[in-house]
Amino acid sequence: MVRRVPVRFGARSYEVLIGPGVRTELASVLHGLGVARTVVVSARPREWVPETGVETLVLAARDGEPDKTLATVEALCREFTAFGLTRHDAVVSCGGGTTTDVVGLAAALYHRGVPVVHLPTSLLAQVDASVGGKTAVNLPEGKNLVGAYWQPSAVLCDTDYLTTLPRRELRSGLGEIARCHFIGAGDLRGLPLAEQIAASVTLKAGIVEQDERDTGLRHLLNYGHTLGHALEVTTGFALRHGEAVAIGTVFAGRLAGELGRISPDRVAEHHTVVEHYGLPTALPAGPATEELIRVMRRDKKAVDGLAFVLDGPAGAEPVADVAEDVVARVLERMPRRPQAELLRETARA
Description:
Blueprint: E1 3-7, E2 14-19, H1 26-33, E3 37-42, E4 55-60, H2 70-83, E5 90-95, H3 97-109, E6 116-120, H4 123-129, E7 134-139, E8 142-149, E9 154-158, H5 167-180, H6 193-210, H7 225-234, H8 241-258, H9 264-276, E10 283-284, H10 289-296, E11 306-310, E12 317-322, H11 324-333, E13 336-337, H12 339-348
Parallel strand pairs: 2-9, 3-4, 3-5, 5-6, 6-9, 10-13
Antiparallel strand pairs: 1-2, 7-8, 11-12
Helix pairs in contact: 2-3, 3-4, 4-5, 4-6, 5-8, 7-8, 7-10, 8-9, 8-11
């Protein structure tokens, strides 16, 4: 069964197709866009890339944070130029979340914007990175600090791709599904994976339609991400994104409880939900509290002081200017596990 989730932006609206074999819709999508040629940037084997129906250049990419840089974006744009890509053509990404981000940003910048179609091949990319038009790369100082908003023309979430994922990569994607529990998706535990993906995408579509450029409501999608991004940076990305977000979600529950925003039972629910998906709930032993706070100050939501998305009586909402001593106290009370032990635990789950 193929699920279709519309993302409504007027003339820039598009559909997210979710289900087995939907990558074969690529040629039809490109035909509908009226393009004469395309560049496919793929972090997956050539045979994973479906037929496009038009003149095509396939470029090899690598998933992972080390290549999520402005240098990679420049290299892609130079390849687009050499191929003769025009504003009336299109770019296609095929890979995980980092490939989706990098290719999306390259498409946004080249000729001030060319159409892009995403074929996300990881669970993380299917439930989050490929939808909503946020594109970004990293700086040494932090995650996703340079980017642009550029909506795709279509997203094809082929669930067949997920059967090839290593167990840890699949679990990483579940970190984004777990955080949806606290931002309006309801309890997705026990649902088939395709339904969890569709529910997560539907939730995100509804939010980004109201706040495309992250001025308020869209901050909800960053639940668990403030600490999560800091954990990625301070561990040298030894923690996968979804693993770090899972820990950040548990922390968000504890911080909301410390601030009196939610009950102890709701705090415990954060731990229970994350644990259900087989994800880590403890901090890694390495990064010091002071280092984590220093990196969190650079978070995109922060204007003056520390900012988080936290649960509360009316649901999740952005909370600005949280006192550093409170954040430090909550971090110090969280259990810590050796990083290697955390990763082994996640791999076994």
